UniProtKB/TrEMBL annotation:
High-level lineage: Eukaryota, Metazoa, Echinodermata, Eleutherozoa, Echinozoa
InterPro entries, per the entry: GPCR_Rhodpsn, GPCR_Rhodpsn_7TM
Membrane topology value: Multi-pass membrane protein
Coiled coil regions, renumbered to chain: none
G-protein coupled receptors family 1 profile domain ranges (all copies): 16-282
MF (Gene Ontology): G protein-coupled receptor activity
Transmembrane stretches, start-end: 6-24, 36-60, 80-98, 118-141, 161-187, 221-245, 265-285
Annotated protein name in UniProt: Kappa-type opioid receptor
Pfam families: 7tm_1
Record CDD domains: 7tm_classA_rhodopsin-like
Organism: Holothuria leucospilota
GO cellular component terms attached to this protein's record: plasma membrane
Principal location class: membrane
Family, as annotated: Belongs to the G-protein coupled receptor 1 family.
Length: 345
């Protein structure tokens, strides 16, 4: 059961975020600055799924076959990527908050170049701040058989461990809470404004450009509120588990020893669930994204069908409409189709 959860989480994160990146980069989503934060969030979640995929084999064999250096690397990268995902969600909420509070200045403040620079700063600072996890000097990183992943042992430097754990996540969660509350208040305000326009406004005003922008803002706010809620649900248990490890001592009646295996496993891997949950939020709540994703999959299906038709019709006589005839191709001994010889039925 545990190996199925680890495998499913990794596969959904890799496949879902890969499609997410393809849609965001190939379609006309890069016209606004917040699209770059969405791409950065998808990249961080994709890399998180790739790192978690190394635990699939470990969840089956209960061993870590990749060596100690790779154990350090996976722990370091996973911790940094989870915090980068939180920072990107925070950036999305801040971007919407600025757009609401300062609608005219936001067009000057929120530019594409500034968004790219801030994304680079978040990635660089987070990986630089977490670099101590890559070296086996401050903490000893070992494979944990209960959660099928490498985690540090917080036997020494507990004060620094608490600071490093809460220095980025706790302020980010506090700011995320404030901006989410602001967004909810703005959501209710805009929703009441929408109803006033529907029941008291004229038909021309109801379908004006202002009303269309209002409905678009309402929809965007709902998506961000749901994403922020998913972040809380996925990250708070993992942060609580980490603080529990740090505060643990060598006594036999410690809290970490009394923690059940299922709860410890759930808290740890719940953080990775947020890496693919955002994809489902986009698909079911953003009609433009879901439509573009379906169109892309349909184009891929048609391209594969055209390629298959070309391979089957290569070297064979075609009908007048260009489709291949029903004459079968001869098969050679190594099970490959001989494209140069077509036999009559």
């Amino acid at each position: 059961m545990a190996s199925c959860i680890v495998t499913l989480s990794s596969v959904l994160a890799i496949v879902g975020n890969s499609l997410n990146i393809i849609v965001l980069t190939t379609r006309k989503f890069l016209t606004k600055p917040h699209a770059y934060f969405l791409i950065s969030l998808a990249v961080a979640d994709l890399l998180t799924g790739m790192v978690d995929s190394f635990s699939v084999y470990s969840s089956i064999t209960y061993t870590w076959p990749y060596g100690e250096p790779f154990c350090l690397l996976t722990n370091y990268v996973r911790e940094a990527l989870l915090e980068i995902s939180l920072l990107m969600i925070l950036c999305l909420n801040l971007e919407r908050y600025i757009a609401i509070s300062y609608p005219f200045r936001s067009k000057i403040w929120l530019t594409k170049n500034r968004s790219k620079a801030f994304i680079f700063l978040c990635w660089f600072v987070t990986f630089a701040f977490k670099i101590y996890l890559f070296f086996d000097v401050v903490y000893i990183v070992e494979y944990d058989k209960d959660i099928y992943a490498c985690t540090p042992e917080y036997d020494n430097y507990k004060g620094f461990a608490i600071f490093s754990s809460v220095a980025i996540e706790v302020p980010a969660l506090i700011i995320l809470t404030i901006t989410s509350v602001k967004l909810i208040v703005a959501l209710k305000r805009l929703n009441s404004r929408k109803h006033r326009e529907m029941f008291h406004g004229s038909l021309q005003r109801r379908y004006s450009t202002n009303s269309r922008n209002l409905r678009k803002n309402l929809h965007g706010f709902k998506v961000l509120v749901v994403i922020a809620t998913v972040s809380y649900i996925s990250l708070l248990p993992s942060l609580s588990l980490r603080l529990l490890y740090i505060s643990d001592n060598d006594e036999e009646e410690s809290a970490a020893l009394n923690l059940s295996w299922a709860l410890e496993f759930s808290f740890f891997w719940l953080a990775s669930c947020g890496s693919f949950a955002n994809v489902f939020v986009y698909y079911f709540m953003d009609r433009n994204f879901s439509r573009c994703l379906r169109d892309m999959l349909q184009e891929l299906k048609r391209a594969l069908k055209r390629k298959r038709t070309t391979v089957l019709s290569r070297g064979c006589p075609l009908k007048e409409n260009g489709s291949p005839t029903n004459q079968p191709l001869s098969v050679i001994s190594d099970n490959r189709l001989n494209s140069q010889a077509c036999t009559n039925v």
